[in-house]
Design goal:
Beta-Lactamase, alpha+beta, single chain, 434 Repressor (Amino-terminal Domain), MLTR_LBD, 12% strand, Cro/C1-type_HTH, globular, 12 helices, 44% helix
């Protein structure tokens, strides 16, 4: 582990980030450039004390999972993330190709979370869900063909919209279209985005109308209202961590502690535990 190199690299990358790009207010009272240490720690889901020790050259060696989380929080490129792994004394993991396997760095973070979360490709294919995400949104990993894309299902299958209030449908439609436009523009040579866009234009007048407006956006935070069949309407904040390749996103659903939505999310986790098959049960 290169303590000096790790501390310097983390500090420089942190200071190079713009708070407004993360939803933080750009206040004149900020005494530091870029993000604050506690903000980076929060984005990486680690303690501020642990992160501060790393920048002060006195922390213990971060695990591979923590390195992956820091890479996402600091929005490192693939080369920068590989460098961070080496500074921390780890071998960089194989880079994820544009395919059906979840990015290793995103997967490591997903496995640590105790809140609903899922890994989704830039074309809307859900690659991995944790159990709470399955309970919240239903199992999304069993589809085949173009239906694997939640963007495709949103515009072609009315059932896909039942878990969202009707007043929010237009917002979701615009968000999905703008996100797909960004993915399409980034990888025009690949047949997959082109096939998805062509089929949506053929089947969905709504998508065609929105596609013609040429909006482009990759959101990193959004608020969603979900109509759950057990707990009812629940409002969640969605933090979106983007992989270094920009081809996969880790979507994390959270609530503000102490509010009704936090109580509903806690109840949802209880429902999940009580409905799971117990040892000796068939699971039917």
């Amino acid at each position: 582990m290169d303590r000096d190199g790790l501390a310097d690299f983390l500090r420089r990358r942190r200071e190079a980030l713009k708070p407004v790009n993360f939803g933080f207010a750009a206040s004149a009272r900020r005494r530091t450039e870029g993000l604050r240490r506690d903000e980076v720690a929060g984005l990486a889901h680690i303690s501020t004390d642990f992160y501060t020790r790393l920048e002060q050259r006195r922390g213990s060696r971060p695990s591979e999972t923590t390195v992956a989380a820091l890479g996402l929080a600091l929005r490192l490129t693939e080369d920068e993330l590989d460098h961070l792994y080496r500074l921390a004394g780890h071998q960089p993991p194989p880079r994820a190709a544009h395919g059906d396997h979840a990015d290793p760095s995103l997967l490591r973070v997903l496995e640590r979370l105790d809140t609903p979360a899922q890994i989704v490709s830039d074309l809307g294919v859900t690659l991995k869900q944790n159990p709470l995400a399955e309970e919240l949104l239903g199992v999304q990993t069993g589809h085949t063909g173009l239906r694997r894309s939640q963007i495709y299902r949103w515009f072609t299958d009315p059932e896909e919209r039942h878990r969202f209030p009707a007043d929010d449908h237009e917002t979701h439609s615009r968000s999905y279209t703008a996100h797909l436009r960004a993915a399409y523009s980034r990888d025009e040579s690949s047949p997959k985005p082109a096939e998805l866009v062509a089929e949506l234009q053929r089947r969905s007048p709504e998508f065609t109308r929105l596609w013609q407006e040429h909006e482009v956006a990759v959101r990193t935070d959004i608020r969603k209202r979900i109509l759950h069949p057990v707990v009812g309407l629940i409002t969640l904040d969605c933090q979106i961590l983007i992989s270094p390749s920009h081809r996969q996103n880790l979507v994390i659903f959270t609530t503000t502690p102490g509010r009704k939505d936090a109580e509903l999310l806690t109840f949802l986790s209880i429902v999940k535990r009580t409905t799971e098959p117990q040892p000796g049960e068939t699971g039917y």
